[in-house]
Amino acid sequence: MHSGFLGGDDWESEYDALKKGDPMYLRTLGQYVTHFAGRTGVPVTAFGPRQGDEERVCEGLKRGLGLSGTVTEGDLVRFSLDGVAPVEGVVDSVLLPSFLGVRTSDGLYRFVGRNGEVAVGHHIFTPGVDREQAELAWQNWLVQLYA
Asked: How many independent structural domains does the chain possess?
């Protein structure tokens, strides 16, 4: 449930974002309770370069995650970050073209594309993760992905 008000002239856009974003947050909560209950995650947020539209964001993310065609929950994902060994996971949420969720053994990775903006909002459950270093690594990944 949301309460309050959306100020400004673009309230319709903000309302639309909430309407699209809430299902991703609820799915993330479900994944956390099922796979990571009781563990504390490090929140990681990074933004990539603006793209022309949601479809361009979506296609870039699919490419970067080793996906193609129609993406469905359960699809296997494989990507590398800063030359580290490949990360393998599974798609756990598909709300394309705006949201894509991936679960690995150590994290919930959330990819967001809205109006050409691209961002990640992850929860990493590996002990000792340096948040600033992780955010920089993801920032670099997004910049390289859309170069």
From this structure: 1
Distance of CA 101 to the CA centre of its chain: 6
User: Mean pLDDT, consecutive 10-residue segments, the chain of 147 residues?
Assistant: 62 64 80 92 95 89 93 94 84 87 95 88 92 94 93
CATH number where 53 lies: 3.30.530
In degrees, to the nearest 5, what angle opens at C-alpha 39 toward C-alphas 37 and 40?
130
The pTM for the full model equals 0.85
Query: Rounded distance, CA 40 to CA 82, Å?
Result: 24
47 inside domain: yes
The residue with tokens 């030359």 is 83
Name the residue among 103, 142, 94 with its Cα closest to residue 122. Answer: 103
DSSP string, 27-42: HHHHHHHHHSTTPPPE
Instruction: For residue 113, list its beta bridge partners.
Output: 118
Helical pair 131-145 and 54-64, crossing angle rounded to 10 deg = 110
